[in-house]
Amino acid sequence: MSLLVLGANSLIAQAAAAHFAEAGHEIIFGGRKQDEPEKYANDFSIRYKTKCRAEYIDALDYPSHKKFIEDVLAKTPDLEYVLIVFGYLGTQEKAQSDFTEARRIIDTNFTGVVSVCELLAAEFESVKKGNIAVISSVAGDRGRQSNYMYGSAKGGLTVYLSGLRNRLFKSGVNVLTIKPGFVNTPMTYGMPLPKPLVASPEKVGKDIYKAMIKRKSVIYTPFFWRWIMLIITSVPEFMFKKLKL
User: Fold this and answer.
1) SS3 97
2) What's the pLDDT at 192?
3) DSSP for 101-154?
4) Greatest CA separation found in the chain?
5) Contact 53, 41 (CB under 8 A)
6) Closest C-alpha to 12, from 126, 178, 193
7) What single string gives the DSSP state of each residue in 148-201?
């Protein structure tokens, strides 16, 4: 069986892919040319002695997605797992005054993912098998003034994945929603984050691998974010809007 990773430059994706490679799965790294997915494919081939290759996809080039998926499936008829990690944090303050920034945040985190997921869903639904895993975020559980543009895109993605999971269940296709908290990646470098709550990409990657293999529906990673977000979402709105979050 094979794993397609969309967003090859992600440390989280690479950490998850390592577990699949160790288990002998073929790995297809999909990413933009400037992200050098072939570099990761070559590295994994050497390190894990498994078949790997690179493919090129731009999350925002929607017209190209159909041919990309068709080409991947033609080369990899046994494709079983897909991990989608398209993401762009962006800058909240810039997004408030510059819709170009706002649109990039929304399109990268939501629209591009939906475009690919619908194509994959149709293919997997027709053969009645498959496993689609997508990284959303705890930021999508409740809007906060510090990142509501990013959070709203992830919140919309979470709802979308819930509906897709409901649609595909009868076909035997699993859809996993992944909700990481703070992770030590380039996206969070320089941010004043509470160290006890910051996870390593390796920890999150392992959680993702286990959840995909077990065909889970939703995971928070690390697990304690489920309880943190339960508290945050339970705060009444009249109180929450006064908080400086």
Assistant:
1) helix
2) 72
3) HHHHHHIIIIIHHHHHHHHHHHHHHHHT--EEEEE--GGGSS--TTTHHHHHHH
4) 56
5) yes
6) 178
7) HHHHHHHHHHHHHHHHHHHHHGGGT-EEEEEEE--B-SGGGTT----GGGPBPH
pLDDT of residue 185: 82
pLDDT digits (tens, 9 = 90+) for 185-214: 877 777 777 888 889 999 999 999 999 999
- The CATH homologous superfamily of the domain defined by 2-240: NAD(P)-binding Rossmann-like Domain (3.40.50.720)
| Cis omega (within 30 of 0) for bond into 196 | no
Identity at 149, one-letter amino acid code: M
Tell which residue, 13, 34, 28, 145, has the closest CA to residue 87.
13
**What is the per-residue pLDDT for 245?**
84
**Phi and psi at residue 37, to the nearest 5°:** -60, -25
Q: Are 147 and 238 in contact (CB under 8 A)?
A: no
Task: Give pTM, 2 decimals.
Answer: 0.94
In the chain, domain spans: 2-240
Q: Which single residue is written with the structure tokens 């649609």?
A: 167
**For the chain, what is the mean pLDDT?**
95
> Does 56 score more than 80 pLDDT?
yes
List C-alpha distances in Å: 172 to 25, 164, 167.
21, 12, 10
